[in-house]
Amino acid sequence: MYFFDIILIGVYAYKICISSKKLYIKGDRRMKNSLKYFIGLSAVWVLVGCGSSSKQNLPTGTGYYEDGAISGVDYKCGSKTGVTGKKGEFIYEQNKGCQFSLGDVVLENKTSDIFKSKEVHTRIADENAINLLSILDLDSNPDDGFQIDHDAAVKTLKDLNITNIHNVNLPFATIVSSVGGKYKNNLSSENQDKYSVPDPVKLKSDLEKHQTKQTKNIFAGKTVYFIDDFYDNQKNQPVVDIYSITFDENMTTAMFDNQKLKVKVKNGVVNVETFGDFKVQSYNDSVAIVKIDSHDDNDLLKLYFNKADVDKRKKEILSYYKVDSNKIKSLIGKTMYDAEKDYASGKLHVETVKFNSDKIIVDSFSGKTKNIPYTISNDTIILNGKKKIKVIYISDEKVMSIDLNGEDKEEVDIFYFDKNKAIENPEINYGNDDDMNDQNQGGDSNGNGGSSEVNQNNHNNNGINNDNGNSNDMNDQNHKSQTSPIQVTEENIKNYVIGKYLYHDEKKRGGSHKFITLKLSKDGSFYYKKDNEVTGTYTLSNNTITVHVGEETKIVNVVYISTTKIGLQDKGDTDVGYWYFNQTDAKNNPAHEDWCINHYYNFVFINSGSTLVLSVSILYILIICFSLKICLTKYTLHTYIKYFNISVD
After folding, report:
1. In the chain, what percentage of residues exceed pLDDT 70?
2. Separation of alpha carbons 638 and 609, rounded Å
3. What CATH number does domain 490-643 carry, 2.70.50.60, 2.40.128.640, 2.120.10.30, 1.20.1050.10?
């Protein structure tokens, strides 16, 4: 009934508008006011008649949960919930994170950075989750996707008291037998005929082949582009660079910066020589979001497939770096958030910062509320008339700033407008941080009090973020890498160093970059590559690493650890060589300033099979170098070796 009433009212309103057009234009106030009243009343009638509400329609998108289509899995993406369809399809609320589960058992969480577009293919990335789904797949064939009987799977996990898939510490074969057997009993008679408990060895092999094939299909024969941006404090300007990697059709090699690099793909993980590992989290025709090998589970990088898209993104990033007083004033009335997570306890604290016209109200991590008067001068906020905060970046997602009164002028604080986004990207507090409010009152900002940091880790005043936070493309956790040191203990070396790729750049002055790669694997193996690959074994005791290559042994001490780099020192030496977890950071911090020492250090490291006579000869040459001040030239140690006709095995 209401439907026809609405149509009649609409027609009547249209006739009135047409017939009274001249009167309205001439400014007949009575007609004007009557028409406004009529239209307003009609709008109310429509809302009442249609049963509409004032709830805002939120932008949504269509996603596909994949490693092959994954059907029968629960999802919750913002306000959207349901079970994935036959093609793995689901509906998500844009700019909100997603959780995938089977009943109350969480499979994995995906951050909001992934769900910004109208369509996305999100890959299952959790190893435990994909192992479980492979067991529950009705036909045990990953190549045609994973068809899960949702109700039977949920009941099976309840029957087995499995509440957390990461706490099932049993051999894979035992898990397959237990979960598979119970699952088969819970299936409907129709699905019981389809399902057989899989053979664990074959299942694992098929799964590895499948993941490798799926990943290769995304990148084979394609060029991907990524953005590397940072704020150069010395030049007082942002630097935004675009890089590209071109993969061959077989995904065995890639070209980067005119260098041919080896590529390996296994279990869905792509390893690019000198870059390290990455795993696809989501992708569409325009972009792939990958998790890079780092300490942070949320360390994501966006790889663009189209040059035009990355060029557009670069312009957007540069616009965010353009900050003036008017842009800062646009923050008035807005609330921002910063999160801090205690490294030891895992507790999360959220700080709230609200801009008023004359004061900044801060609800700190400690629960205290402070009102801080401020003024604005160009791109700088002056707190209490003395503490200067330089705002370097403002987007619709976050604000980035530098404390000009702090000891570390490179530390960048990040504040989000979305509280959930801040919680997704907490600063890690290693126990030596002060409350941020004390900083705002003029206290020390040396990494203290809820600051978020661009991946700085360098002595050249350059911060880098791999298009993570500054670009709005990535998760910002690697912005929050701490340059403040972590205590050097055997446990922290295991947590932060072992199993990670380390990079060192021996760039000649005015010359090209020369990267050295080092990895201490969890199985006790040692890998080093400069001109040639060297492998061996190592042992760790306290802060001392003893490397064994053939019959030769080298002892180094770990003297510095942060989430971006480590410092290594030869036993008995005073010089420290810095190695970075990210190749771009190594590139921004080449070791050319003290190259004689570094070349000697790295040369002996790589040529562990050389004789004592050779080492003494090299040392003798170095003494001659210093005495003749040859170190001021651009020659490398290898040039000297060639010049003196020394033969190196």
Report:
1. 70
2. 17
3. 2.40.128.640
